[in-house]
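seq:
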Amino acid sequence: MDTGEHKADWLAQKQLGWQKKRASKVETTETFQNLIELFASIQAVSVGASDIPICLLPRSERPKLAAGISDLYGDSIDPKFIKWLGSDSALIVVWLTGFKPRGDDSRPDRGLVPLARMLFGDEIEILSIVSGPAKPEMWQVLQENVEQLARQNGLWEAVLHLSNAVLADSPTLVNRPLTLLLTPVHKQNQNTIRFPSASPVTSFSEQDVDTIIHLLFSTQIEAGIFEAMCNPPGGDWSGLSVMDFQTGEEFRWTSLPCVSAVGGKRPDHVIQLDFAEAEATLLAIESKDVPGKIPANLGLNLRIYVEKLLGMFPVAAKAVGSDWRLWQGDDLPLRNVRIISGGAFCWTQERDLALSIDKCQFDFVMAIEFDSVESRPCSM
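struct:
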């Protein structure tokens, strides 16, 4: 199977089922939901796992897709796009939510189109379907200057340079759907590639702040400190855990929303402290590179988020020396919880500490000072 078409034909023979997962956290349009139903009615094939947002459409199914999309969108769709959809070749379809509820990029989606291209090579055609609520000004740039958008945005850079076509159907897109036919960019460097020698780091970012927090709190259980949630690198932002320090049992909430229904905001880090008191103490921390990027009054939203989450039953629990099991209890594991909100950022100046506490309504702040030190290379 040395070509993408050969791989596609082989997968089509396997007839492994695929179905698009429906995400309730991000708003979509009625036509996009109908588009999902359309794919369920034709033979979309899994490319290896049934729950990843990449599927294969065998060449025999492309005319059905073209006819279905033409019926779904009517005169709103470009006839040239419909003609391309009906081509006699296999098609890889990549589904990108692409954007969080507030319109910011969903970074994990950046890798979907490159992954599809890596798996099937340059010759196979890829359709990228984008459904998330991008900001209206982004849609405008996409229609007017795709190269400018690719230079400005890493997600769109991957989509526009590696896809053969794009179909966007989003609640923030006024004239939907938006369709584009593209020529994938294949660059090959024929020149010698030289890597510069390592140099001292002179600029530090939010990722460095996250790393320091993780290093400080992730291995201190014996001191009564438990890392309940940690923003990468090095951590896990997909769930929140709390511990019963008396029994060692761990309770976990998973599939966390970015914001709660009442306006709370998910912290970047949650640290549990054991003060040998009846009341559990949790530090809810927001991290940024500089204090000015932290929104006003955020401390309250961090506390609301954690309070609402811990007011629900956990998804799973794990006793010492046992495997995880689904939660079956009738009582909440933590009834008395004190939540302390805080911010963490790179050191700027002393006055920013008090200003951040006042502006963001934090209970505490952490300013981390980094020092770039150049060391001589060792000789071998």
